[in-house]
Structure formats: structure tokens, C-alpha cells
Amino acid sequence: MDKSRFIFFCGKMGAGKTTLSRKLAAQRNAVLLSEDEWLASLYPGQISSLQDYIHYSGLLRPQIKSLVQSILRSGTDVVMDFPANTPKQRAWFRSIFSETGAEHELIYIDLPDEVCLQQIAKRSAEQPERAATDTPEMFAQVTAYFVEPSDEEGFDISRI
């Protein structure tokens, strides 16, 4: 039996991680897990700042890790629409796949800020429920923490 494959993403807010994750999950017949969907479902209306996001995201991680590892051990591919935008976030992803022996791919969507901001504005207009957090100010706050993945981190990186 082939090893399961674990796919996750790095890219600034608005880079297209969600769109690409959905496409890849459908192509690969993989399980797709979306952080935004989990947070909205479990903590509706409770995330209005970067600090809220960090808090509630941290609450999800232990259960999500266990779930993803169980799926990977079953031989099923997993696509995670959770950000791998900092070394700390990427270390969490590493713990998931390294403890299961799954293959992995870190897809880095490298787009200029201007394109990301245009896509955020479009998304905010199309999804009014996200208008409070999909703002240029939130983009600036989140981007301040963004760290491009490096070869030294040792991930199998596909840059697009």
C-alpha cells in the first residue's frame, strides 16, 4: 500500500490557499480539513481579532492533530487548509506527518501583497460574513508574522 500524503499550505492571507486546497482535495480524493470552517462552527462570532484567532486556533490543534494522524494512518491523503506561515506553525505540521510516516508536501503560494489584498477585497464582498476580519488592517497584522519557508527547514516544498 502506498503511503498516505499530507498536503498543507504556506501563503499570505488572500493568496488562494483555500481555493487550491479544495481543488487538490477533489483531485486526489483526499480528506480536506479547513481551519476557517472548524473555527466558524465551534466558535461562531467569537473571532474578531488576531488574538482571538490565535487563542481559538490553539484550542483546535490537539484534536485536529489526532484526527489527521488517524486519517493518515488509515492510508488516506489529507489536505489541510490551515496556515503554515511561521516556523512554529510549520513545526506543528512536521509533528503530524513525522509521527505517522506519511509523505508530505508544503505548497508555498508566493504572491505579492497587492494581489493578496485584491483577492481579500473580492472575498469580503462575496462573503459578507468575513468582512469584519478580511480587511487590509488584518492583512497587515497577520503578514507581520509571515516567514517564508526555507530549504533549511527540510520540507518538500512546491512553490507556485
From TrEMBL:
UniProt xrefs under Pfam families: AAA_33 (PF13671)
Source taxon at top rank: Bacteria
Protein name in the entry: Cell division protein ZipA
